[in-house]
Amino acid sequence: MPKISTYTDGGALQPDDALIVVRSGGNVRAFARLYDVAFYFPGVPGNDALLSRIVLPRACYLPSAAPSSRADAAAAATAASTLTIRRNGTAVGSIAWAAAGTVGSFTVAADRVFAAGDVLDVVAPASADATLADISITLALLLGAP
Question: How far apart are CA 52 and CA 50, in angstroms?
């Protein structure tokens, strides 16, 4: 049975722990499980390249602003570059790299819900950057619905 952990319990949350989050608006949400989806694209993606295509086996969601998600590239972008995060072919967010940047920043306007069987993919821009390469992305999803 999962237990409720706090930082005073001596450290990090375990995979089956529940996490209680209090937001500044006073809303409280409990998440029984965190669900990270990670992938790596080697080399320089071409125009409109599909960097990742994942069929999600369970219901989950990508929280607004994707606060715990991470994106990194081993080789910096020459110019600003933006990848698109899609659900079943429809854009639900983006990951942007600044010129000369190696760390991507996420834009997700609202919680994006995925049902079991939905396809989550990430696509390069129509005019891909010539130097942005070896891209690692971890999407910090949460199981269930918001």
Answer: 6
- The answer to whether the CB of 108 falls within 8 A of the CB of 83 is no
Residue 145's pLDDT is 84
120 closest CA partner among 58, 34, 33:
58
Instruction: Kindly list the distances between the CA atom of residue 77 and the CA atoms of 101, 136, 137, in Å, as whole numbers in the listed order.
Output: 6, 14, 15
Residue 7 phi/psi, 5-degree rounding, is -65, -20
Mean pLDDT of 22-27: 53
For residue 8, pLDDT over 50 is answered with no
* DSSP character string of 18-80: BEEEE-TTS-EEEES-EEEEEEEE-S---TT-EEEEEE-SS-EEE-TT-TT-EEEEEE--SS-
Q: How far apart are CA 42 and CA 65, in angstroms?
A: 26
Residue 133 · residue 73 · CB < 8 Å? yes
